[in-house]
Write a structure and sequence with these properties.
homodimer; alpha/beta; Rossmann fold; six-stranded parallel β-sheet; four-stranded parallel β-sheet; 12 strands; 42% helix; DNA-binding; transcription regulation (chains A, B); HTH_LacI (chains A, B)
Chain lengths: 376, 376
DNA sequence: GTGAAAGCGCTAACAT
DNA sequence: ATGTTAGCGCTTTCAC
């Protein structure tokens, strides 16, 4: 569908309202298009009087620059793309906020896409953003570990790089040394280690690890940190105490409920993220179990719901918004068309730390689980 | 700054990698650019064999279409813009989700901007999106009622319309009959009326209305609904029971705390939204007041936190995501360059309904407030 | 300080 | 079914 091209001159003296262009403005102001351009971009010496006239003409004609023509003619697309799996998930929303703010700060607009967890869609969106000549495409959150997928992603990264744009991996593992990406990560494994250790320090030995798709890098790293902490303290790993699954609230609720019925004994649960923790908390509540008296509970991410739960959730804080900011910051400044090493590759790893609130206590005298006495 | 024209990655014998264009692909495939275009857009008869060759050439050259050139040459920008005040606020996030999904469904990409509540920024973003030739610009959430601002907004609406694009007002009052906008609203006033009536029906007479910037249309409408319910039931309006303010959690918390210390008596609280309710809930909790035994509490929006609070919050549900969807749906289909009445103006009003959960009970024997006995 | 003109990469008539 | 050829609206040397 084309912009209205407006037919005909009509009989009346009205000129058809075709959108005004530089040419119109130039004519109207009695200058050349070059001058109009210079005025609009205010980046070139132009006589005050001339500028005044041009601006007046533009205003009068309701001139609105065409960003496409502008982008085509040379300068960058002034765009940053961000791809998340779900906008309403606070984890992604906070990162998106960081990206949006930094993009705006860098005088760019932000293209946003939601994959709903579909890697195929992710790839397609990268392509679309590349077509829009985005200066950077930020890929947020854990990724699956399919070789074909990684290969495709790498290919896209190269294509983008060939075009002077950057693919930013935010909170997911690097694609390897040869692939021109910018990596902005956080210490997933470390955070999980720290909070598990926190639990152990409080005396817990039987800790239930709950949630997180085993296929997602994020979830895998958290589980790895958890295991390392156990190992370091010489605590035997009990397979039934590892219950990965999904990252949603309903998973936390349902699985916890099942486990409460016929799962192993445990005195604490480490939910793979705060959302899962919220679900688990509900199951615990409905089972008449108190947190932290009967069972301790911790999460990961420190999104707002962590403070809304009762008791308030002890969890791992990630500098979400900061990650988003850094992602675009290094992508935009890290390779300013300077001829550094060919594809500018950056890496950044932000720290995490645990936030202690009220959901952890010493282990209950009678640990919870199959065959234990249940209070109801 | 131009696309990097530079050296190819690796030291091997690569030739200078300028981004491939239709011309390159055409040459490489031994066809004309027109054919390449037809293949890429798969919307025109092309011999299978030819198509095959072209596709191969494109793949081989790593051809990525230039969306700007494409947009310039005729077709639309394939873009929908959305402007919200804050992405991490679930109210906006859900609407944004609807917009994004519908945009994607309509084969468009989504430009997102956050104003952080600044009307000036809002205007600026509209302009930017117009420059990008967005097919629709969705403005989400309440607005201030400044005449100059409305005038500016109207001007932008006209400019957009002149360009075949639509300004969509989502959850905010129309700009008037003369202005070419698409309006997608929900029944703010009605929801407030309903939930206040719910409280009254349970026996409450002294209801505290808490939060919401008086300058925002959203907040004003909610307060209006509240007042109408009171009036209809013949309940006298007590000025001190109306405590507008902000839409944030901290406002709810602080003001509630102050009010608990030296405010008027009340048996129920109607928070202007769920976030404010969450803050109020905390203040209540800290004061040793139980909900709903000592005081009832309701909110507005029905965002996820409403289910996370204990007791679960009774509130007003708004079809947030649906609004977002409709916003782009009517904007995109409502005026398909057909020559209907000049500027296609649409309007849509979605319903709200209250969701009863556990935060409302009958009034406490001893109403809460200044001079009342407080349990601690 | 300002103008003229050559593209940027693509699509869409219009030919063939 | 495929090729030719104008532009789309803007920026940007290069002259003046």
């Amino acid at each position: 569908m084309a912009r209205q091209r407006s037919t005909a001159p009509g009989g009346s003296g009205h000129r058809e309202q075709r959108r005004a262009t530089v040419v119109d403005v130039a004519k109207h102001a009695g200058v050349s298009t070059a001058t109009v351009s210079r005025v609009m971009n205010r980046n070139y010496p132009v006589a005050a009087a001339t500028r005044e006239r041009v601006e007046a003409a533009a205003r009068e004609l309701g001139y609105v620059a065409n960003a496409h023509a502008r982008a085509l003619a040379g300068s960058s697309g002034r765009t940053v793309g961000i791809i998340v799996s779900e906008l309403i998930d606070p984890f992604y929303a906070y990162i998106a906020r960081g990206v949006e703010r930094e993009a705006t700060a860098g005088d760019r607009l932000c293209l946003v896409c939601c994959t709903q967890g579909d890697p195929q869609r992710e790839l397609a969106f990268i392509e679309l953003m590349h077509e829009r000549r985005a200066d950077a495409v930020v890929l947020v959150g854990g990724s699956v570990d399919d070789p074909d997928y990684r290969a495709e992603l790498s290919r896209r990264a190269h294509e983008l790089a060939a075009d002077g744009a950057k693919l930013v991996l935010c909170g997911r593992p690097s694609l390897g040394a040869g692939v021109p990406t910018v990596d902005v990560e956080y210490d997933n494994e470390g955070g999980a280690f720290a909070i598990t250790d926190h639990l152990i320090t409080r005396g817990h030995r039987r800790i239930l690890y709950l949630g997180g798709p085993p296929a997602l890098s994020t979830a895998r790293d958290r589980l790895a940190g958890h295991r390392r902490a156990l190992e370091l303290r010489g605590i035997e790993r009990v397979p039934e105490l590892e219950q990965p699954g999904a990252f949603g609230r309903s998973f936390g609720y349902r699985r916890m409920r099942e486990l409460l019925r016929d799962g192993p004994e445990f005195t604490a649960v480490f939910a793979a993220n705060d959302i899962v923790a919220a679900g688990a908390a509900q199951a615990l509540e409905e089972a008449g179990l108190r947190v932290p008296q009967d069972v301790s509970l911790v999460g990961y991410d420190d999104i707002p719901v962590a403070q809304e739960l009762r008791p308030r959730l002890t969890t791992v804080r990630i500098p979400l918004e900061e990650m988003g900011r850094q992602a675009v910051r290094v992508a935009l400044n890290g390779g300013d068309e300077d001829d550094w090493r060919a594809p500018t590759t950056g890496a950044l790893r932000l720290g995490t730390h645990i936030v202690v609130r009220d959901s952890v206590g010493p282990p209950a005298a009678a640990p919870h689980g199959r065959g234990s006495s249940r209070q109801v």
